[in-house]
Amino acid sequence: MGNLCFGKDDSKWIISSSQSNKHLDYTVLNVVPISLPKNRNLFENVYEIENRRLGFGNYGDVKKCTHKETGVVRAVKILNKERLGSSNLNDNWFLKQIQVLNFINHPSFIKIHEFFEDRDYFFLVMDYYKGGDLLQKVRSCRKLPEDLLLKIMKQLLIGVSYLHNLKIVHRDLKLENILIKEKDGDILVKIIDFDTSVKLTEKGVISGLYGTIYYMAPELVNLEYNEKCDIWSLGIIMYALSTGELPYTGLSDHHILANIQKIPINLNNNFLHPLSDNAIDLLRKLLSKNPKTRISADEALNHPWLKSEGFNSLKTKNTLENFEENSAKTPVVKDFLVSNFTIVKDYKMLDLAFLELDTDYDGIVMWENVFDFFKKFYDDATAEAKTDSLIDKVQGCHDDRFTYSEFLNAGIDLRSILNEKRIMRFMMTRNKGNRKNEINDDFFGNNAKSIIVNNEVEEWIQELGVRLDEDIKPKDLQDVMLEKLYSNSSDNNASEIFDQRILERSIRESQVFEYKKHHKRYEIKDYEDMDY
């Protein structure tokens, strides 16, 4: 099939000769590091941390935390430098993990927001998932129904295929390292924990006994192995999801390793009933003890069992058709808001849509893929029009393709980011600690991009001028910010927008906020459900 190359200024699509061009510059387009900022503040000054552990490992714990100024809930991985040891510290182990994370731009992996460092700890701040992990899912359900198993395994293999194409090997895939988010019949999985991940050498091999013993491939006891160790781990995960138990146990690590090498796994059809023959066939290929005959992630994704949809195409269509016009006059502000203020529910459907559109699983969607998707529902002319419309909304992408981060930035609805609860916190903190009617620096941060955002939003507030001595609701300021973000006209004064919104609402409505003129700060009058 030819490539459809969509030039934004062209009225027609130019068809190139083959798909090969996509892969020739794959490393240029997709392996550009995503900037992961180091926050130079003290972690405890920025986040409030809960004592209860969400998880733990050899080097530290994972806990829930809340940004003190914005109220955004995250998870933080706290790595103890003493437990890391001098050899890891001298080898810049943590920075190497950051480098790996910087290369990952894909919906199958948890989103990392920033990191901190003090004398004793590293802090890695990431998305928080209420849904728990696959181990908790197995404990609650024991055996998963096959339709749910298919959705999970397809997403895991898509993620691992992406990693392996980047020459990255995870080396610790297990039930606990797969987070899930379920709602309305959909499930989204996220791979976490890159503590033992490594780049393949030029010879395509790695060494060292790393990972969790129950999921280790037989060849790990040898001096050298390759990315197929991750495939074995996925096979163990699929087995556990199908049967409710792990295939190998033992009295000691040495005993378990010996069993993995010598004892075959029971993959009898009767034992795995009611799993379909196709599902069992894939499981056997994932759990081949010989890595040379073990299926690869790319090959597995072409297996008959996984060629089923695995996604809700109707929801993907609705997601694409509901994209907001992305004509933001201030793209820096929008990019910053997407990076720092989104939570999992803001982009779950976008993640699933991207996974369905990325039909060759490399983290890049061609506009041809979008056109082919729309043809499932429309004739060619309508599909072409729908695709053209989407092109106009995904700014900054390449002529014929876009990456996950570009798709996410385009698809996020700013109304979900700038919801009234977040605007409320903004209004509360805006004058915190000063009497100058200025935005508190802690709200947006202190790096270069956040300073630009700080100044931009401050201009909007200053345009309101004397309007700040009026009663004001978060909805009023939300309207101003949204219109300023999306407006193409420099004549759109914030004060005029504000006046218009005030006219649209009765001043007799119950006010969420009242600006206390003499105290120079906002106070809560009535607002519920602070925890979002």
From TrEMBL:
<comment type="subunit">
    <text>Monomer.</text>
</comment>
<keyword id="KW-0677">Repeat</keyword>
<comment type="similarity">
    <text>Belongs to the protein kinase superfamily. Ser/Thr protein kinase family. CDPK subfamily.</text>
</comment>
<protein>
    <recommendedName>
        <fullName>non-specific serine/threonine protein kinase</fullName>
        <ecNumber>2.7.11.1</ecNumber>
    </recommendedName>
</protein>
<dbReference type="InterPro" id="IPR011992">
    <property type="entry name" value="EF-hand-dom_pair"/>
</dbReference>
<dbReference type="InterPro" id="IPR017441">
    <property type="entry name" value="Protein_kinase_ATP_BS"/>
</dbReference>
<keyword id="KW-0106">Calcium</keyword>
<keyword id="KW-0067">ATP-binding</keyword>
<keyword id="KW-0479">Metal-binding</keyword>
<keyword id="KW-0418">Kinase</keyword>
<keyword id="KW-0723">Serine/threonine-protein kinase</keyword>
<dbReference type="GO" id="GO:0005524">
    <property type="term" value="F:ATP binding"/>
</dbReference>
<feature type="domain" description="EF-hand">
    <location>
        <begin position="345"/>
        <end position="380"/>
    </location>
</feature>
<dbReference type="InterPro" id="IPR002048">
    <property type="entry name" value="EF_hand_dom"/>
</dbReference>
<dbReference type="InterPro" id="IPR000719">
    <property type="entry name" value="Prot_kinase_dom"/>
</dbReference>
<dbReference type="GO" id="GO:0010506">
    <property type="term" value="P:regulation of autophagy"/>
</dbReference>
<dbReference type="GO" id="GO:0005509">
    <property type="term" value="F:calcium ion binding"/>
</dbReference>
<dbReference type="InterPro" id="IPR008271">
    <property type="entry name" value="Ser/Thr_kinase_AS"/>
</dbReference>
<dbReference type="GO" id="GO:0005737">
    <property type="term" value="C:cytoplasm"/>
</dbReference>
<feature type="domain" description="Protein kinase">
    <location>
        <begin position="48"/>
        <end position="306"/>
    </location>
</feature>
<dbReference type="Pfam" id="PF00069">
    <property type="entry name" value="Pkinase"/>
</dbReference>
<keyword id="KW-0808">Transferase</keyword>
<dbReference type="GO" id="GO:0004674">
    <property type="term" value="F:protein serine/threonine kinase activity"/>
</dbReference>
<dbReference type="InterPro" id="IPR011009">
    <property type="entry name" value="Kinase-like_dom_sf"/>
</dbReference>
<feature type="binding site">
    <location>
        <position position="77"/>
    </location>
    <ligand>
        <name>ATP</name>
    </ligand>
</feature>
<keyword id="KW-0547">Nucleotide-binding</keyword>
<dbReference type="InterPro" id="IPR045269">
    <property type="entry name" value="Atg1-like"/>
</dbReference>
